[in-house]
Amino acid sequence: MTLRIKKNRLLLYAGLLACIIVLPFVVRDPYFIGMVNFIIIYSILCLGLNLILGYTGLLSLGHAAFYGIGAYATAILMTKHGFSFLPSLIVSGLLALFFGFLLGLPTRKVRGDYFCLLTIAFGEIFRLVTQAWISFTGGAMGIVGIPIPEVLGWKIQTEIDFYFLGLSLLGFTYGTLHLLTESKFGRAFVAIREDELAASVMGINTPMYKILTFSIGSLYAGIAGSYLAVYQTTVTPSNFRLEESCLMIIMVIVGGMGNLAATFLGVSVMAVAIEFFRPVPEYRLLIIGLIMILVLLFRPQGLLGAAAFKD
Amino acid sequence: MFIDVLIVGIMVGAIYTLVTIGYSMVYGMLKLMNFAHGDVYIFGTLLCYTLLAQAHLPPLLGILIAALAGGILASMVEFFAYRRLRAAQHRMISMITALGAAYVIQNASELKWGSQVLPFPSLFPSQLVTVLGHQISVTPIITLAIAVFFIVAFNLFLNHHKMGKAILCVSQDIPTSSLMGIPINRIISMVYFLGGMMGVVGGILYSASYNAISLGMGFRGTIVAFTAAVIGGIGSMSGTLIGGMILGISENLISVYVSSSYRDSIMFLVLIVILLIKPTGIMGKVEQDKL
Amino acid sequence: MALLETDRVWKKFGGVTAVQDIALSIEKGEILGMIGPNGSGKTSFINLLSGIYRPDKGNIRFIGEDITGLPAYLITKKGIARTFQNLRVFPNISVLDNLLIGRHCRVNNSLANVYLNPFLSRKREKEAEDYVIELLDWVHLADRRKELAKNLPYGEQRLLEICRALASEPQLLLLDEPCAGMNPVEMDTLAAFLKNLRERGTTLFIIEHNMRFIMSIAERIVVLDAGAKFREGSPVQIQNDKEVQRIYLGEEEEE
User: Fold this and answer.
1) CA A146 to chain centre
2) Of the candidates B246, B183, B245, B239, which has an alpha carbon nearest to the alpha carbon of residue B24?
3) In-domain check, residue B101
4) How many domains would you assign to chain B?
């Protein structure tokens, strides 16, 4: 790359960064910031899901469960055991990673379609357990009164505070996933998606990589869950239904499967669409379902997705 | 009494079989998990509720119309949402579409009927009969008989009627069937249609037995179909029967003798265990990947 | 020393015996050809060597080490790479990425690097890329490295598949019908290329139907019939062998 192009690129990134940092001070509408925070959370979730679904080609309809595991972990640690935010965040991420690892284990024996069923069952059992295990999770009422998070003296309470917290988490997520997907690991995932047998002949330990993609993808969902817990100050089972997993799936697809940066686009587009239909909540599922069908019928690669998904 | 519980369990098993046939056939033929299956037949059952309880149609007419509507809806879903994606490279694409279809139908049904539990009318007068010194309710036995009738009739259709045999051919090998002159698209529509119809009949029998119908039964119905098909072995008629029976009987036994609130969790657990141990089910063959 | 030896390997599928009692050795630096009528078990045999199938009986040794039953990815790591009969490049991925995937097991990077030392990770990836671009340069595909593999003409896709296998620096390269679908000019180019490969130290094992090709390039030929080793010898010997002609002609007679 010539020096001039490199310089231009750097300027572009710097400008983008400046805009992002300055945004909440320029647009002071808390409603708008709230929506941006919504986009941030779902971006973190969907980046992880894109790794699993878009890059590796594994359909997981249980992603919301890892979101929930992270959320409940932080909620319980902070309310019942007096943990502060950062340790809770770390535990949430690691716990979600662990369960992601567990869910990845059966991929060796259980074939694609059946595995999808397994992820649904996993998600449903998580939801049922959180509803039934009242003493631990607060049942259908969930956990309330999650305290204000504090990071190195910085109290995070306003929408703008959460904006910057979310941005840091998002930065971490995107940065690490970008490195991952541009490395041999990302390529191995793609190889598995395209032709698993050929991938194994290339020296890729396919069962291990499938477990890896689940573990890593779920880690970020756990992080998002931890953020949700302190952002919403309450956590209930209704945050983590199958619908949520489906919403995440459609966000990944609309943006573009197999393209990390496209995830932002997909999340934003769907967030705007949802806002549009907010006055008619009784049509929510219908609209999500229609979008799913139409996108897959006519543009399965989404807006910017990998060539592999074109008709 | 145990004999009651057993009879009801068998009845539920037969109903589950009816409901699962459509789903199992579709998967066996097209390797598509029709997530919309439950929502489609619940739509039919809800329609039947309106026809019987509110429009006061004679039961037979109401059931017939509802079943036809269910069948038509099922084939419409195939035509609009699935057909084009049959040749898709990544199979998960059709699965996601199926999920979308499920949501559309679910939401549409909710707009019309809401999500609360509605009182579905009984179809048969409740009578007690004395057999071998025990008093048993006649209703589950009649319901069981009807369900079995449909299962047997469908089986006969598959094995002896020209179209049924065509369906069996297409289930085994689409390209060859096409070369033999079998109209593939029409057969596939017919499979969805019949599966939807039988699902509705099963749903109606179930709701009539329990005098309850609600939207939530749709998703539950889809899970029942998955689980029964997985237990028994997808794509196999006898497998569907075995799976349905095992699920129905065990669920009922557990519901009565252990606890009814864990019913759904147990079903998911069974599903997970079977998927981990023998995903091809009891009657299913282990598929060898051709290289 | 034999680079690879199979010691009486068997492979059955249900009632069908695909590979029957084959004892074969491939010498270091040679070009060994395998021919045989359709269904004689050639591809099954290559699948055994590359770890896709596990032999039911017998064992396989590579550089003196027992590799029987090892999974495919480990066998590639040990130094055996292969191509496929029906061309299995990754069609929707760029030429460069295809090769980088082929180089997977030689890319000296780790998850720890990615998360904890991204600069080192970048450096290692760049090394891999440099190696692979050199490989592409050699076959004159470097200027097309960003193109999707499926957009390449057929002959070049075949070449790409071979290069992808070479990216893992194998000692032994297994080729399953590399000429299928090629015209005579492409075949000659391929033959020259493969001979060049051998000069640089790669041992070749080639399954082929095309007699002209295999006779021109192989130094030794093994003939398979109904899963068993039927004959072994030099190209001239095999060409003149009446029995070999019969098993091929016998195939034609049945039509």
Assistant:
1) 22
2) B239
3) yes
4) 1
Residues of B in contact with C13 (CB under 8 A): 288
Contact B249, B6 (CB under 8 A): yes
Could you give the number of structural domains in chain C? 1
Q: What is the pLDDT of residue B260?
A: 65
What interface predicted TM-score (ipTM) does this complex get? 0.91
Domain span holding position B223: 2-277
pLDDT value of residue B288: 52
Once rounded to an integer, what is the mean pLDDT over residues C83-110?
A: 94
User: B272 to chain C nearest CA, in Å?
Assistant: 27
Chain A contact present for C50, CB below 8 A: yes
- Residues C114 and A185 sit within 8 Å (Cβ to Cβ): yes
Residue C138 lies in a domain: no
Residue C255's pLDDT band, with cuts at 50, 70 and 90, is: very low
Residues of A in contact with B105 (CB under 8 A): 289
Burial of A284 (0-12, 13-18, 19+ CB in 10 A): middle
The mean-pLDDT minimum among B19-33, B88-102, B103-117 falls in B88-102
Contact between C148 and A188 using a beta-carbon 8 Å cutoff: no
CB A263 within 8 A of CB A252: yes
CB contact under 8 A, A246 and B92: no
In a domain, B202, yes or no: yes
Q: What pLDDT band is residue A275 in, cutting at 50, 70 and 90? A: confident
What average pLDDT does this structure show over A52-79? 95
Mark A290-305 as b/e (b = at least 16 C-beta within 10 Å). bbbbebbbebbbbebb
Question: Amino acid identity, residue C245?
Answer: Q
pLDDT for the residue A201? 95
Question: Measured between CA atoms, how close is B206 to chain A, in angstroms?
Answer: 23
Q: Does residue B28 lie within any of the structural domains?
A: yes
Residue C71's pLDDT band (boundaries 50, 70, 90)?
very high
With CB atoms and an 8 Å threshold, state whether B288 touches C47. Answer: no
Say if the Cβ atoms of A201 and C100 lie within 8 Å. Answer: no
CATH number of the domain at B31, please: 1.10.3470
In a domain, C94, yes or no: no
Neighbours of chain A (3+ CB pairs under 8 A): B, C
User: The domain spanning residue C198 has which CATH number?
Assistant: 3.40.50.300
Supply the pLDDT for residue B287: 57
Does residue B141 sit within a domain? Answer: yes
Contacts of B27 in chain A (CB under 8 A): 113
Whether residue B268 and residue A128 make contact (CB cut-off 8 A), yes or no, is: yes
- CB nearest B33 (choices: A116, A197, A300): A116
